[in-house]
C-alpha cells in the first residue's frame, strides 16, 4: 500500500472539515426559505443537503489526490453521505440524512465489537503508527471507543427524533465534534500508562 503523501495540515483541515462548516453556515442562512424545483417545494435543509453531497465528494476527491490515500473510515463515511444525502433530496425527506450519523457510528462500533470478540483491536490497525501503545492498552481503548460509538449512535437518534432540525444541525456540527475531542482527551491517563515511546535510529 502506498504511503500517504505529505500535505499541509491547513489544507487537510479545510478539506476534511470545510464541508461540514459550510453545511452549518448555509443552513443558518437558508433554514427559513423554501425552494421550488420541478413543481415540488423543498425546505432550506434539503437544499443545503443537495449542495453538501457533491461538495463532500469533491473535497474527498481532492484530499485523496493530494495524499494518495483514503482510509476505510473516510470511504464508508463518504458512501453513507452520498446514499443518505441522495435519498433525502430524492424523496424530499430530511430524516434519511439525519439517520446517517447513527449508521456511521453503528457500523464502526460494530466493526470494533466484532474485532473484540475475536480478541483483536481493529482500532490498533488504523491508529498504531500515530499512537504506539502496548496490546493491553489497545484492547482497553478499543472497548471504550466501541461503547462510545454506540452511545453516540443512540444520542443522535434521541436528538433528531425529539428535537428541532436546527438543534440537530448544531449538535451534528459542534456537539459530536466536541464529544469526540473530549473523549480522547479523557484517555490521557491510558495513553501515559500503556504508551510506547518511539526510538529513532
From TrEMBL:
A GO cellular component term found in this entry reads:
plasma membrane
Gene this protein is translated from:
ispZ
PANTHER family registered for this protein in UniProt: INNER MEMBRANE-SPANNING PROTEIN YCIB, INTRACELLULAR SEPTATION PROTEIN A-RELATED
Q: What does this protein do?
A: Plays a role in cell envelope biogenesis, maintenance of cell envelope integrity and membrane homeostasis.
The similarity annotation says:
Belongs to the YciB family.
Q: Tell whether Signal is among the UniProt keywords.
A: no
Q: Which UniProt key words apply to this protein?
A: Cell inner membrane, Cell membrane, Membrane, Transmembrane, Transmembrane helix
Which cell locations does it reside in? Cell inner membrane
Kindly provide the name given to this protein in its UniProt entry: Inner membrane-spanning protein YciB
Organism annotation: Donghicola eburneus
Amino acid at each position: 500500500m502506498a504511503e500517504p503523501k505529505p500535505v499541509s495540515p491547513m489544507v487537510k483541515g479545510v478539506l476534511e472539515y470545510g464541508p461540514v462548516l459550510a453545511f452549518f453556515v448555509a443552513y443558518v442562512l437558508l433554514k427559513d426559505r423554501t425552494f421550488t424545483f420541478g413543481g415540488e417545494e423543498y425546505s432550506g435543509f434539503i437544499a443545503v443537503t443537495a449542495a453538501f453531497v457533491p461538495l463532500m465528494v469533491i473535497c474527498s476527491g481532492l484530499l485523496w489526490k493530494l495524499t494518495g490515500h483514503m482510509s476505510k473510515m473516510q470511504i464508508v463515511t463518504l458512501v453513507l453521505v452520498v446514499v443518505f444525502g441522495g435519498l433525502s433530496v430524492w424523496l424530499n425527506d430530511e430524516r434519511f440524512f439525519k439517520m446517517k450519523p447513527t449508521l456511521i457510528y453503528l457500523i464502526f462500533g460494530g466493526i470494533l465489537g466484532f474485532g473484540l470478540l475475536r480478541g483483536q483491536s481493529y482500532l490498533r490497525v488504523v491508529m498504531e503508527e500515530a499512537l504506539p501503545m502496548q496490546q493491553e492498552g489497545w484492547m482497553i481503548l478499543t472497548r471504550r471507543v466501541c461503547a462510545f460509538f454506540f452511545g453516540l449512535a443512540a444520542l443522535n437518534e434521541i436528538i433528531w427524533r425529539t428535537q428541532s432540525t436546527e438543534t440537530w444541525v448544531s449538535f451534528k456540527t459542534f456537539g459530536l465534534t466536541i464529544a469526540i475531542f473530549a473523549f480522547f482527551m479523557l484517555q490521557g491517563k491510558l495513553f501515559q500508562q500503556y504508551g510506547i515511546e518511539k526510538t529513532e535510529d
